[in-house]
Amino acid sequence: MNMHTSISHTESFSKDRSGLHFFTEETGAESERCGPDLTKAEPIDQVIRRLQRLRSSFSVAFYQACRESGIDLTVMVSQLGEERLYMGSALDHQAKLRKNRSDRLGKLVVSTKRRRDDVVDLVNMLGRFADNRPFDSIEEAANAFIAAGGRIYVLPDGRCEEIMPYRPSIVMEDSWEGYPRRRMAQRYAATLLRTGAREEMATIVRERGIFRKGSYVLELPRDEA
After folding, report:
1. H or E stretch including 131?
2. How confident is the model at residue 22 (pLDDT cuts 50, 70, 90)?
C-alpha cells in the first residue's frame, strides 16, 4: 500500500495553494483501493451545488461529503494555538479522482470564514485533532496529568515513564465532555519535547512524589483519586 499524505486547506488555499500535497504518480492496483469506489460516487459538481445551498447544516454535510470521497479531516493546533484544517487521503489507484474532489471541497470550505470555522468546530467535537500547544511550565503539565488520574514515574535508571488509565468508561466519558483528557495528553507530550523537559519533570517527581518499590511516583493522593 502506498503512503498517506495530508492536505492543508487554510485561508490561503485559494490564493497560493501552498499546503496542497499530492503524489499522483504513485498509484496502486485496484485491489489496494482505500475507501469508497469513486467511480460510483455522487458527481463532485452535484456535491458542490448541494453544499453551497446549506447554512446551519453545512459542516455535517461537508464532513459526510469528505468521507464519501475517501478524505479524512483533522484539526492541527500549532504551538501558538492556531487551528489548521487538514484534509488527508491515501495514495491508491483513485488518487487522481480524489485529488479533484479534494480540490473542489477545499476551495468550498475556505470560501467563507463561517464555513471553515463550523467545520473546524465539528472536527474538534469529534475528537479528530492533534493539539501541539505546550503547557506554560513543566509543573503545570505534571499537575494536569495527575489531575486526570495519571501517574508519573522516575524509574531506577532515571527515566520518566507515564501511565494514564484508559478504561472504556473513561474513554466514553472523555468523548461526552469533548475529549479534554485526550487534548491534555497531547499537550503534555508536546511540553516534554522541549530541551531538558524530561530532566525537569524527573526533578519534580523526585521532589513531590513518593518512593515506592525502587521508583519515585507522582500521583493524586488516594483520598482525591
Report:
1. strand 129-131
2. very low
Measured CA to CA, the distance from residue 58 to residue 189 in angstroms comes to 34
> Rounded CA gap, 172 and 179, in Å?
9
| E strands present in 164-223 | 210-212, 215-218
**Share of residues in the chain with pLDDT > 70 (%):** 84
* Helix extents (H) in the chain: 13-16, 44-52, 58-68, 95-109, 113-125, 138-147, 168-176, 180-191, 197-208
For residue 161, the surrounding DSSP H or E stretch is strand 160-163
| pLDDT range class, residue 129, cuts 50, 70, 90 | very high
Q: Are strands 160-163 and 129-131 parallel, antiparallel or unpaired?
A: unpaired
pLDDT at 76 over 50: yes
List Cα–Cα distances, 172 to 116, 168, 181, in angstroms.
Answer: 27, 6, 11
Query: What residue ranges do the domains of the chain occupy?
Result: 4-130, 134-218
β pairing state of 72-77 and 129-131 = parallel
3-state secondary structure of 9: coil
Query: How do residues 26-52 score in pLDDT, each as one tens digit?
Result: 445 555 667 788 889 999 999 999 999
> Taking the CB of residue 6, how many other CB atoms lie within 10 A of it?
13
Mean pLDDT of the residues in the chain: 85
